[in-house]
Design a protein that fits this description.
Layout: H1 2-13, H2 18-32, H3 35-43, H4 47-74, H5 85-111, H6 121-142, H7 145-150, H8 155-188, H9 195-227
Helix pairs in contact: 2-4, 2-5, 2-6, 3-4, 3-6, 4-5, 5-9, 6-8, 6-9, 8-9
Amino acid sequence: MEKRKVSLLKEVFGRSPFSSLVEHARKVHECVSLICPLMQAVIDEDYEQIHRLQDQVSQLEYEADRIKHAVREQLPRRYFMPVEREDLDNFLHHIDSIADGVEDFAVVLFIRKTRIHEDLCEEFKDFSRQVLHLSELLTEAAEDLEELAETSFGGAEARSVLEKISSLGEAEWRCDRLQRQISIHIYELEDELDPITISFYEKMLRTLSDVANAAENTGEFLRTMIVK
């Protein structure tokens, strides 16, 4: 009888999408976690490893897309939710763009056997780690979505998530600073670098910066959902 009651409630009110949204956020973070190994591989000039990692990123991005499509199919029109269905769909779009950015970065590394100048290696690794840190902060906030839903996106849980989101802004600012510093250093070395290599360094920086910006934008959208 109890099982029948639960089944009837799901039929009438629909199924909560929040656990699947958390699953999607974690899958996206798996993509981001490959940025540092990718950067290390290009520094080591291990192009076979870059190929393997690019394949992994592509697979993870595909898995994230499958979860995204499943979430959109199950976003219920009848389920009583503390936020608008359209807002959840937009949040899903924002966080999915992070995985797309990681795939772009992996492709940039894959399409050309680019050597990183030894004077730039540590800076590129620092930048990669900072982008990963940004993703970690966002994932921590996204993992609270189920609890947020239970409290109607209010109370102590909402305040806790807002504090986590606030730290994203500073982390993204640090990413911007690192990007500028590396760009300056690249052009200080331009007598030692050919124009195509400089162009690829800039593409690497740009695609990583896109990942960082997407993470911050996703956090800001989550903030908007909470304070609406």
